[in-house]
Amino acid sequence: MNEARRSAAGLEVRGLDVYYGHSHALQSVDLTLESGVFSVVGRNGMGKTTLCKAIMGLVGVSGGSIRVRGADITRRPPAQIARLGVGYVPQGRRLWRSLSVDEHLRLAGGMRSGAWTVERIYDTFPRLAERRDHGGGQLSGGEQQMLAISRALLTNPHLLIMDEPTEGLAPVIVAQVEEMLLRLGEDGDMSVLVIEQNIGVATAVSRNVAIMVNGRINRIIDSARLAADRELQQRLLGVGLHAELEPDLDIPPSGPDAKPAPAPRRDGPIRIYVSNPTLPTRWSQPVPIARIEAAARTLSTQIARLDETARRKREPMAAQTAGPPVVLVVGTLDTKGLELRFIRDIIAETGLRTRLVDVSTSGKHSSCDVSAQEIALNHGRGGAAVFGPDRGAAVTAMADAFASWLRRQGNVVGVITAGGSGAASLVAPGMRALPVGVPKLIISSVASGDVGPYVGPADITMMHSVTDVQGLNSISRAVLANGAHALAGMVKARLDARAATAREAGGLPSVGITMFGVTTPAVQKIAAELRDDVECLVFHATGVGGRSMEKLVESGQLAGIIDLTTTEVCDLLMGGVFPATEDRFGAIIRTRIPYVGSVGALDMVNFGAPDTIPERYRGRKFHVHNPQVTLMRTNVEENERVGRWIGERLNQMDGPVRFFLPEGGVSALDARGQPFWDPDADAALFRTLERTVRQTGHRQLIRTPKNINDPDFAAAIVGAFRTLFGRTGTRRRLAR
């Protein structure tokens, strides 16, 4: 493509008019998409799909012009427009039921050559690779949408038009589509026009959003402003209250001569209200407020600078949201109503505001502040999934729904529940979704046993109920009252600490560092060098250590990661006793925080006493760390496997990444003259990482000839950290 076309706008629409008979569907539409992703939102029937079809030549144009990278495509046949580099993902997907996934892709793949190939599609959407031989009619809605998007990408378009790409999809698939749109925009290879009803997605993927009203572009507005302003969403889009549109709004118009109003900063979670499950039209009747609240989502924005993180770190995510603080008393009110109300009344007597939340799965209505029916709306399949005959499935579905609902609550300062294993299973997943530091208490008969499955990496407090939580008696009253007072005390102390923190001038931001015994010297040097810049929180890489660190990342309490010791991956893949979960690195991927990492202790798999080592590993090289811990040296094949696994996760990180490869050894045992010194195994690890990771300007692998514990290696880590965070190392530690 010549340079003139490269520099032209991805899409330029001028004075576009479209009629359906005597109905003027599009009225002098002007729209310019320079590059990246651009969202268009509006109520149903406002002309959004007609705009897509007009660009694609699927409806006749009465007036105006359409240009794609400078080429005039107005009134050209659809096939010619497609050959000129315009891809289309229509509303409704439009797949062939009789063709397999692979046949769909092969058919589209021969149209235009470029970066997108069938192999890259399968790498991007592994689910399609698994279903490659299934027909279009055998796929789920999410899989069909993946296929429709993939089919369009395989044409390697200059302009990709997507009409309602998240319509009817489960929340997890919506998140995947949103992530893909963000990546397409950042890659810069194509321009993307997104037509969306989901305001959360539209504002997350695009810097500016166009609002269509009655066939016209009513205004183009900063996405942060639209996302933050619920009233504006209601008035322009009918979201929430479905108010009649007011043409003369108190909002400065867009245009070359207009002075843009300062957009509100995304300093905390933003409540996005959507009228799900009923999409609004001009003729919609009001939707119950409870349903609107239940369908709302919270948009958490990324912290970009350490100074800002230091100011906010003690009150992350939901706890920072304005509103009176509230304690949630949660449980199955159909069986534990008396006990839960007893707890609520005690907490209320301390002066704290409470809300009684029902998570029972019987479908019975109870007197409470938040009903089980309202909670159930937060499940992807609604009440049908929660109130079914299979009790196990119902409990799992309600736990998911409650966790989803709880993440959207902006002023929760404590959560308490009481009951047996069922109540603990229902409420614990939601508690684990809350930031570390928010008091969480479970009073249960299971608290004297193995509580690991309930607590996980979170800071949940469990109290044994002594007697079963069934009725009030002298024992249960004392235990429940102690639990209620304990939670109230934790909440009040935290609120007092919050007030004291707000009076302080500032503080140091926190950064997580992973450590093992064999990487301790490196961590000590790094922490000492950074002590004037950040507060270093060190996590022992024993499986739960990595999960705890990523929990704090999700909570917004860490500004960045120095993941020096990733050894937990070895135990995950080879069956050691300190394994990570499959979601290792997931929090970094989702939050896009700056990440400096390395291959610390990837030379070893951890087992217990020597007689506990699996038979398949007999004859391997071992080192007895102590009588209860035996280390096994990883070999070339295992290191290649680890390298691929980590590399695939690094490819998913969209934040700045610097990943170091110490050629002098990855641990204290992997050094010249030490028992695990094996340059061939290390070389296999490094080679696989370099083959797997797609290096870019923000994602880099860095080789160094030093051992991981060498002072020069620590200095390189510190230098990369300061480059990513903009620190000079001269800031004095603030007085405590």
From TrEMBL:
GO MF annotations, alphabetized: ATP binding; ATP hydrolysis activity
Record key words, sorted: ATP-binding, Nucleotide-binding
Composition skew (Pro residues), residue ranges: 253-263
KW Signal (keyword) present: no
Domain of life (superkingdom): Bacteria
Domain ABC transporter: 11-239
Xref: InterPro entries: AAA+_ATPase (IPR003593), ABC_transporter-like_ATP-bd (IPR003439), ABC_transporter-like_CS (IPR017871), P-loop_NTPase (IPR027417), Tobamovirus_resist_UPF0261 (IPR051353), UPF0261 (IPR008322), UPF0261_C (IPR056778), UPF0261_N (IPR044122)
Region (Disordered), start-end ranges: 247-269
Role summary: Involved in beta-(1-->2)glucan export. Transmembrane domains (TMD) form a pore in the inner membrane and the ATP-binding domain (NBD) is responsible for energy generation.
Family, similarity comment: Belongs to the ABC transporter superfamily. Belongs to the UPF0261 family.
Protein name, entry field: UPF0261 protein CIT37_22800
